[in-house]
Amino acid sequence: MTINIITGIVSIVIGGFYLVSALLLPTMTMGDRLGPKLFPVIVAVLSIIAGVALVVGDLVKKTGKSAKPDFGFKEHKDIWLKILAITVVGIIYGLILDSVGFLLSTALFMFFITMMTNRKKIGQNVIVSLSFAIAAYLIFAVALKLSLPRGFIETALPF
Amino acid sequence: MQQIFANLAIGLQTAFTWTNILWVIIGGTLGTIIGMLPGLGPATGVAILIPITFGMNPATALICMCAVYYGAMFGGSRSSIMLNTPGDASAIVSCFDGYQMTKQGRAGQALAISAIASFIGGSIGMILLVFLTQPIASAALKFGPAEMFSLMMFALVATITLSQGNLLKGLVAICFGLMLSTVGIDSLTAIPRFTYGIDALQDGIDFLVIIIGVYAVCEVYKNLKDVDTKLNFDSKHIGKVWITKEDWKASWKPMLRSAPLGFVIGALPGMGGTIATFMSYAMEKSLSKHPEKFGTGAIEGLAAPESANNACSCGAMVPLLTLGIPGSGTTAVMLGALMLLGVRPGPTLFTDHPEIAWGVIASMLIGNIILVLINLPLAVPLVQLLRVPTRIMLPIIMGLALVGAYFLNYSSSDLIILMIAALIGFMFWKLDIPLPPLVLALILGNTTEQNLRNAMVLSNGSLNIFFQKPISAVFLALALASLVYALVKRSRQKKTAAEKA
User: Fold this and answer.
1) Residues of A with CB below 8 A from B179's CB?
2) What residues of B are in contact with residue A32 (Cβ under 8 Å)?
């Protein structure tokens, strides 16, 4: 499996899925009849064509094929784990932000991320994450007057 | 002619307010710092600083973002010169001679010429920008849906044909971008499309969220494996940050020649600072009487690309301001931020909001002067910032990205989209699928589709409309020509590669 073949397969699968969804859109009985379908169908067909061309191109060629993918799932396992962890924590951050409030959730999020990159120095990480949360709060809520999600800490603050 | 100066006067009026000058200084300095840090370029800089612009009026916001953009162009070469590590892709060329100069103890001269060349390139680019925008914007005012559609087709096609990568992969990227742009309620018929029953997708996917995911979060992922690299350099022996008479003699012509080249490349979609700097370096090497000196610390080898680079960022403003079409990642981010503030760049910007359009242009003039004043005396202290360890820098960028994405719509579902987009972006990077065409297609997708449908309604469903209107036909011909050019160039490259093997 070369990277072009993988890209091609991804493009065919996504294009195909998108094409089916586009064809299932309701047809308008009046006005601009092809309207909402026409453009998506064109895009889907192009995507499938490009995908097929990528796959066939690398299957037919004897020399000059594209390289094998270098995802590094094994060698860089730690990096992939970190990325996955950051993804999950980022989503959790979004989910708790409104109820917990900006300061606490941001500080916790930052502490987690600094622990991913700077594991050994917990003290440094606490300082960085607290100062980030407070600085961001001062800039956005106090100076720029944007409304931030307010939790129990923010409601207790005078500003 | 008179019109241009009258407009420029309006612009100077906008630009010369304390607030705007202050934001030019802040934006320019932040841009210089972000540009300097290895792995982070202007697109990341503008993307993470979007939330700061929320409280601003549109003119100040655009002025500030532009300052970040060309500030990053000033800063990008700092780490090339000191550490042999480019701050962003367009500063790769600056390593060739810049780092050699540092090794010879001429770091001060290298830092000075890079600031001076950036200033000269930026100023020449500015002048070209002043004279070109008005005619292009006036011409574009007459464009109907057919012309706009063909123009966007050209922009999209050119993004993949003029860049270096694989054409089919570029097409795949464009298709993915267009697909994402169609998610949400169709604005013409009110039918929800591709939402799969998820309420959060009804309003569509905010492309700024994707942009922050791709240009900020994803950049953090790419840099994760380098968290423990220590950047060490000797700042005691930088010397005086100034150039000698001989240096000036060797470099003034290359700087003047490279600026227009950089400007033109910047104005074309798909070609950015990286191509501009490489081309200007190659051009100067071939014109030089001593090409063998290039790569051994020749000052003109640093001056030329630095000048091209800043002129290129002025050139990139031409399609953004006059046509509303971003030609690069950075201008795409700027377009997104502006739309958030309710301003749609394009030909009408010059008639409806001349103070914004010309204010920005005038501010670039002032910004250039301010930046050279910041960069010459403060070069040595600014370079010290390179010592901030990556392992602290990355979390801060990550935090700014998430906070910024949340503020776009105050929506936590955006953070879910952001994290998924960054993860997919990282996979695409591993698969070598180019992301700029995807981002461009995502931004232009909606307008492209609407123009296509409006044109089809006008022509009663006949495709002929795109070929019968002369301007539209020209754009389609240009798109085809760029495709043919790319195919011929690639087959030649393959031939020479085969002959070598």
Assistant:
1) 14, 18, 40, 43-44, 47
2) 188-189, 453, 456-457
Q: What is the DSSP letter of B54?
A: G
Output the CA torsion B50→B54→B58→B61 (10° steps).
-40
Decide if B327 contacts B43 (C-beta within 8 A).
no
Summarize the confidence of residues B37-52 as an average pLDDT.
Answer: 83
Q: CA-CA distances (angstroms) from residue A131 to B37, B295, B396, B402?
A: 21, 44, 10, 16
Q: pLDDT tens across B299-321, in order?
A: 999 999 999 999 999 999 999 99
Among B277, B272, B240, CA closest to B255: B277
B395 reaches A (C-beta below 8 A)? yes
Q: What is the pLDDT of residue B121?
A: 95
In the prediction, which pLDDT does B311 show? 94
* DSSP output for A24-93: TSPPPSSSSSSHHHHHHHHHHHHHHHHHHHHHHHHHH-SSSPPPPP---TTTTHHHHHHHHHHHHHHHHH
Residue B38 tokens, joined: 């290895």
pLDDT at B418 > cutoff 90: yes
Domain ranges of chain B: 2-229+240-500
Q: Does B438 touch chain A (CB under 8 A)?
A: no
Q: Which residues of A touch B421 (CB under 8 A)?
A: none
Q: What are B109-140's pLDDT values in tens digits? A: 999 999 999 999 999 999 999 999 888 998 99
Chain A residue at shortest CA distance from B227: A117
Q: Rounded to an integer, what distance in angstroms lies between the CA atom of residue A90 and that of residue A143?
A: 26
DSSP B460: T
Inform me whether the C-beta atom of residue A85 falls under 8 Å from chain B C-beta atoms: no
CB B233 within 8 A of CB B400: no
Find the helix or strand (DSSP H, E) in which B421 lies: helix B412-430
Amino acid at B492: R
ipTM: 0.91
Mean pLDDT, chain B, as a whole number?
A: 88
| pLDDT score for B501 | 65
Tokens of A128: 């960085």
Residue percentage of chain A with pLDDT more than 70: 95
Size of interface A-B (CB pairs under 8 A): 187
pLDDT at A31: 57
Residue contact B431–A94, C-beta within 8 A: no
Say if residue B490's pLDDT is above 90.
Answer: no
Query: Do residues B425 and B214 lie in contact, with contact meaning Cβ atoms separated by under 8 Å?
Result: yes
CB pair distance less than 8 Å for B175 and A50: yes
Spatial contact of B33 and B385, defined as CB atoms under 8 Å apart = yes
Given a cut of 90, is residue B207 above it in pLDDT? no
